[in-house]
Each structure stands twice: as structure tokens, then as C-alpha cells.
Amino acid sequence: MVMTPDAEGSTLQLRDVRKSFPDPGDPVNRRLVLSGISVSLAAGELVSLIGPSGCGKSTLLRLIAGLETPDSGELLIGSEAIRRPSAERGLVFQDPNLFPWLTVRRNIEVGLVARGLLQEKKTEVDEFMRLVELEAFANAFPHHLSGGMAQRVALARALINHPKVLLLDEPLGALDAFTRMRMQDEVLRLWSARRSTTLLVTHDIDEAIYMSDRIIIMTPRPGRIDQIILVHLGRPRHRSNPEFLQLRGEILELLHFAGGERMKSGKAHAPIM
Amino acid sequence: MIVRNGDEATAVISPPKPPPVSVAASLRTLSIFAGSVALALVVHLIVARNEPPLEMRFYTIFLGSVLLIAVITAPAQILWARLRQFRQNLHPILTAAAFLLCLWEIITSGVRLLPLPYFPSPAKVLHSLITDRMLLFDSTWHSLLLLLSGYAFGVIAGLITGLCIGWSPPVRYWGMPLLKVVGPIPATAWIPLAMVVSPSTMFSAVALIALAVWFPVTMLTASGISNTRASYLDVARTLGAGRGYLIFRVAVPAALPNIFIGLFMGLGASFLTLVVAETVGVKSGLGWYVSWAQGWAEYGKVFAALVIMAAFFSTIMTVLFKVRDRMLVWQKGVIKW
Question: How far apart are the C-alpha atoms of B297 and A77, rounded to whole Å?
């Protein structure tokens, strides 16, 4: 666990969070998606969340973002309860979701415009354009960008609000393998510069080990926390380092053990890359 | 460490340059065009011998000057590539137009295939157009005023109701059934009622045009707003956006392509309603002019008014296209126009 005193991030605590959705096939009972999630993130920590499809990872992120409300339980940023979406919790999806009618620069400015801070923080826009190395594309429209560039814009757009918590929902999932590895370094660079508390949902075990301080492994629906693995490797990490590979093997075995029953049911859940 | 290359290549956009047109090819198309105009002129001069010369005069001048321009610009384009390109693109369609005019004159004045006076020759139409220009100009002006005021009211009302219905579920619940029942009634079907209720024909005409525009604009705005991608709204919320931002800076721009479809449909409906309103009630405008000229059996004037209408309506349509192209410039490269 990394603790940095000058982190922009804030602690994040989840206490026994439950969430269910109405089941379209069953009007009486609701479908439980998350059952009793409790976990604490230190300020500035980078934690990965892995688990089979449909285990509620994205729902958990939406709860923290304030886009959904839990059935029961508490979500706290520092000592404040999460009630609604706010600029202090940035969310980046797999699809960059850039606004196609705005140029790259205007997309990055969205958070400042929405909060009426554009005038006083104009210089910061330039700073963030530089940070993600997109100055040359300031006036390009999003459909002219490659996948990796678009995702960098999405990151800059979230980071310009100086979020206390950064929520990344498979942000690199749609990129090809090489771009993806480059972007992992990019995210790490941005994270170490800013130290927002970061929660990263991923399907990629390598990515989880390469990037995070801790890895939370979730069970299939209803999602619970199965294991929390501490990644005790120093940074920068090497993907071919024996310790890295050993940890990878351990996690694979763990997931395989956890996934043995599911495979028999005929439905292919594949948290393993 | 970041290593990036190749990313940037995708961002370069430049329109393809048209291939240069050879002088010989352009002279060939030019001679075909000049020939077609010359043919029209010869046919006209032959046919015009049996007609009153005063009515034929303008058309003779018109064809003569077109022929003159065609011949004069021939040497110019050898030196000027831009002009060559322009004429190369336009010539086939202009040649076809010249042939069409020629054919029209043969059928009407030439062999009298169509009953007179209902189908005047192009020469007579041009004569009416020029001699009655003051009244035609006045009628066009009145039509423009009526159209623009009706269209403006209809668009404003349509945008407001569309926005409310698209954004707010309770408004949609109550508003949508009303819209679906009342909206499809053609605006012109309200004319009998409008005549009884309204204080003036001008007022009722504006209201009817506004009604005709209001329905498609409301419908398309509402569907555009309510189909805004949920993830755009989610992203905006997590960036600190309030309700005003979500509506006017996310939902409205996202719905703009749809809104423009509504604006185009509304414009078509407004043309129709305008002409009908002017024909049956309003005592001015192009619609009134057509029925008035028809009453005097001056079909040259009827056709002249139709020519003006074609130019008038298509100009307004073009203006709206230009506005769309400007406002939706971000769509360039995303969809084909």
C-alpha cells in the first residue's frame, strides 16, 4: 500500500454496500448485483478490480461515482458520504465518450465550463493538453483521433477537475495490445504526477499486476470481494520479472480454482486474458 | 516513458483535389453548349415569326446574350484554369437546360401541341416576368415576410415543446398523446376554423404556418433529446455538470442533427401552407398572385410566378442547408451528407 502525504487523492471507504436491480423476468424479486462490499482505499492508492463479467464491477464504480444509489451500506470520500455525482470523482469509460461536437480542447474544458471556472483556470487547460501530449490536436474533432489519443483526451478531461478519486472502467479495454501497454505507462505517469486515489476495473491480469498497489478479486454475481492481493513489487515494474510472473501464476490459479464450477455450467466467463 | 508514432497520421484531413481539365476537352463541351443555345435561338427566331414581336423581344435578347457569353468565355478559359473547371462541371446541366427550353418552345408556340392559353411558350413567360416585375417583386416580399414570421414562431414553439417532451418524462407522458393525435392533422385542414376564430387573415396565416412547422420540429427535437446517449450525460455529471449544462450543452448538441431534420421537414410544410393560405385567404403574396393571374387567364404570369416560387423556395432551402453545414461542421467525416 502506498501512502503519499501530498496526494491529491482522498481515502475511499465502502461499508457493506449492497445493490440490486429490478429483474425484467421476475416482477417480484430484484436481482442482487453486489452483496456486502466493504473495502478501504488509502489516499493516493491505485487499486485494481478484477472478476468475471457481470459481477458488478461497473456497478460498484457507478455507485462510487454517485450515478447510482446503494440499497444499503455507506460510501465515504474522506469522511463525507457520497450522494450524487460530483467533479471530485472522475469516471473514464472503455468508450472515451468524448463529445463529438466539441474539439479536443473544448472537450478537456468541459469540467471547467460546467463548474464556471474556465476563466480563472484557462492556463490549466494548456497544462493538461501538454500533459497528455495533444497540443497539436487542440482544434481537431474527436473522430479524427485514434483510440489511444481519444482515451488520453478522456483522461485529461477527468483529471482537469483534480478529482479526489479517479474511477477507470476498463479504460484500455478497447485498445490493441501495443497501444494498451503504452497507455498503461501513460496512466501510471499521470497517476504518479497527481496521486488521485484510483480504482481501475480491468479484465487483464497483467495490467492489474503491472499497475496497481492492490488487486481486488470479485466473485461472480452477486458480487462479493473474494480476495485482496497486495502487489509487493517495486516500480517501475517489468512484465517479464520472475516475481511478476510468479504473482501472475498465483492469481491465474486462484481464478481458475474459483472459476472451475462455472465452466461446467457451459457459460464461458473469462476474466483471464 | 511514452513512445508514440503513427497515431498522428490519422488526424490529417484534406479534401481531394479535382483532376485538371484539358483545354481540348473543355472546348469540346463548350462548343456543345454554345451549339445548344444557338439551336434554341434559331428555333425561337423561326417560331417567333408567327407571334407578336413585342412579346418575343426579351427572350431573343436573353438567348442572344447567353450565346454571346458562351462564345466570349471560350478563349478566357484557355488561360484561366478555375473558370475551365467551373464550366466543365456546369456545362452538361446547362446544355440540357438549353435543349429543354428549345423543346418547350417547339411544343407550345411551334407545333401548338398543348392547349392555349394554358401552356405559354418560354418567351411569353419571360415577357410576363419582366413586364409584371413590380407586382411579382411585391408578392415575393409579402410571401417572404409571411413565411419567415410563421416559420420563426413555429420553430421557437417547436423547440420549446420538443425540449420539454424530450427531457421530462411527465411532460412526455401528457404531451406525447396530444402531439400524436393533433400533430398529424395537416395545418391547411384548420383553415375553415381559422377563418371563423381569428381576427385577421394575416394573423391566421402566420398561425397556420407556425402550426405546420411546429409539429415536425417538436417531434424530431423530442426524439433527438430523449435519445441522447446516456453515457454522455453520465460523463457530464461526473465532470460536475448541472441541469442547465446537461440540457443545453449536452442534450441539445447531441440532438442537433435530428433537430435539423425537423427544421427541413417544417420548411417543406411551411411552403405548402403558405401557398394554400395565400390562395384562399391572404390578399397578397405569390400564392395570391397565381390565383389572381389565373382569374384573368394570364397564364404567362402564372408560370412566371411558378418560376419565382421555385427560385424563392430553393434559395431558402439552400440557406438552411448552409446553416446546417456551419452548425454541424463536427459531423463532417462522421456521416455522408
Answer: 83
